[in-house]
Amino acid sequence: MEQSNTNGSLSSPSKPYIEANDYDLQFPTWSMEYLKQAAIEHRLVRPRSLAWAVLLNAVPPPSEDILISISGHRNFYDDLKKKLSMDPRGVIGDDPLSQNEQSVWKQHFCDKELKAMILQDVVRTFPDEPYFREKNVQDLMVRVLFYWARAHPSPGYRQGMHEVLAPLLLELRADRRRAPARLSDTLRYYLQEDYLEHDSFMLFSAIMKGLEKFYTTGDVVPTSCGRLPTSKTLHGQNEVVRYLDKVREEYLMLFDPDLGTHLAECGISMELFGM
């Protein structure tokens, strides 16, 4: 027989409810099973960003291996930045006017163009949130999105990806600002301010593993400057549109026909509803 705990959640005699505490990495409350249920019931504790990382399989539940995993992600980001930040002036024999796809100078100019394109979106992030008006925050977002796009030439950067990154950055910042003075060694390492950018990249990369397919356009690959070929070469619907059509046809009308009918009567497309 199930019993109700003080929070209204159900627990059983064999698996009693265990109260989780902020910034406390005790194993029962940081197991994958517990975190999934806590997320469903809107009771994830802090650092919430670390719980997200576990749920996204970016890092294992807190154990001796979690420090190795976090360090590995941070080292990967540092290595990626070094690899993609080559100074063309140090390359002998390369011409700044070269159109050769292997030209470091050509890639340098394409990178500047890609960063400018990303910045156009970043400066519009959450207009009512002062944090995103800070230049250093905008620069951080441009870097994270740029390096991810360069590491994933297909789909590359797509409009709207900055809105995926922004909530992650807010949560990472909040976890650090609200941390108590006394922390375990694991949390003290994870919550270092110097690694805010690295951890943003880690979480964004983990989420994009599931979202990446929605930003692809058939077999079309962006240019080295991050732009898609002209629309004349594109065929078929975007993957996300097909997915939303499936949601409407197979799920919405089945589980919530009133909502489906209301959207149809109001002329609200699934693309708009999906946003």
| Mean pLDDT over the residues | 82
How are strands sequenced across the largest beta sheet?
1-2
Shape: globular
Q: Give me the Rg, rounded.
A: 22 Å
Element-by-element helix/strand order: EEHHHHHHHHHHH
| Poorly predicted residue ranges | 1-16, 230-237
- Number of DSSP helices? 11
Strand-residue proportion = under 5%
Largest pleated sheet: 2 strands, antiparallel
InterPro entries: Rab-GAP-TBC_dom (IPR000195), Rab-GAP_TBC_sf (IPR035969)
Organism: Euphydryas editha (Edith's checkerspot)
Protein name: Rab-GAP TBC domain-containing protein
Pfam families: RabGAP-TBC
Structure description:
The chain is mostly helical. The protein has three domains: about 5-45, no CATH class; about 65-215, no CATH class; about 235-275, no CATH class. The chain has eleven helices and two strands, in the order ββααααααααααα. β1 (about 5) and β2 form a beta hairpin. The longest helix is centred in the first third of the chain and has 20 residues, at about 65-85. GO terms for molecular function: GTPase activator activity. Keywords: GTPase activation. One of its GO terms (cellular component) is cytoplasm. It holds the Pfam family RabGAP-TBC.
